Amino acid sequence: MQIHPSAIVSSKAKLESGVIVGPYSIIGDNINIGADTVIGAHCVIEGNTTIGKGCEIFTGAVIGSRPQDLKFKGEDVFLEIGNNNIIREYCTLNPGTGQGGKTTVGDNNLLMAYSHVAHDCWVGNGCILANNSTLAGHVSIEDRAVVGGIVAIHQFVRVGMLSIIGGCSKVVQDIPPFSTCDGHPARVYGLNLIGLRRKGVSRESIKQIDQAFKLIFNSGLSVKHAILKVEKELVKTEEITYLLNFIKSSERGLTRSCR
């Protein structure tokens, strides 16, 4: 363990072996930091915050500070960050709000400079939040999703697995899995073919997803009738089942086609 002499680390904080804390960083009481995590200079880590193993946190990040929610009255709230995450300069991550509220960030994510994860968000594994991307409260980002720079996502929106949102987009409804979306407000432009191929999805399954997208987004059918047609006509692969379940469970509504 290496703690710079200018850093302030609470005696109540729990730091595992191999943790490095850079100059002028401040680590509060109820903090747990896993082995081999590196904290850069001028970082602030406070609240009830757990950070996993092998993370890199760069200059000026503020992690675990009280949620930006006017309803917050000092309840016990939590922030949990997994393993092998890269959190770049001046990112801000808030805990949940309301008694027991929790924000969760999974493993192997890249949060680029100035990105913000608000209260009660859930970020999966292998996601990328590009510079200045902003998640409002209660946003969910599923595995391997990519959020472009300067994207703003409305509270309670879900971003589906293996989707990509183009830079400067305004996201007010759920982003479907496997999609490429862009715009103000965001609209669906097609499939994230590169992401699907990198994940190892078979060519036949990608063909099925493509057919499903054409029915759901470009056929002129209502979402309800398009789903019925997909269920009737297409092979129920793992990806198709996941896509349909995601759409059926949408509460904010689904981002529609650019057409």
Task: Give a written overview of the molecule.
- With 259 residues, this protein is an alpha/beta fold.
- The chain has four helices and 28 strands.
- The longest helix has 15 residues, at 203-217.
- The protein has two domains: 2-141, 3 Solenoid (UDP N-Acetylglucosamine Acyltransferase, domain 1), CATH 2.160.10.10; 196-248, Up-down Bundle (Udp N-acetylglucosamine O-acyltransferase, Domain 2).
Number of helices: 4
Query: Which percent range fits the helix content?
Result: 10-25%
- The count of domains is 2
Average per-residue pLDDT, rounded, comes to 97
Report the biggest beta sheet as strand number plus sense, adding barrel if it closes. Answer: 11 strands, mixed
Architecture (CATH level 2) name of the largest domain: 3 Solenoid
Lateral strand order in the biggest sheet: 1-4-7-10-13-16-19-22-25-27-28
Specify the structural class.
alpha/beta
Strand content: 25-35%
Summarize the SSE layout with pairings.
Blueprint: E1 2-3, E2 8-9, E3 14-15, E4 20-21, E5 26-27, E6 31-33, E7 38-39, E8 44-45, E9 48-51, E10 56-57, E11 62-63, E12 78-81, E13 86-87, E14 92-93, E15 102-105, E16 110-111, E17 116-117, E18 122-123, E19 128-129, E20 134-135, E21 140-141, E22 146-147, E23 152-153, E24 158-159, E25 164-165, E26 170-171, E27 179-183, E28 186-191, H1 193-199, H2 203-217, H3 223-233, H4 238-248
Parallel strand pairs: 1-4, 2-5, 3-6, 4-7, 5-8, 6-9, 7-10, 8-11, 9-12, 10-13, 11-14, 12-15, 13-16, 14-17, 15-18, 16-19, 17-20, 18-21, 19-22, 20-23, 21-24, 22-25, 23-26, 25-27
Antiparallel strand pairs: 27-28
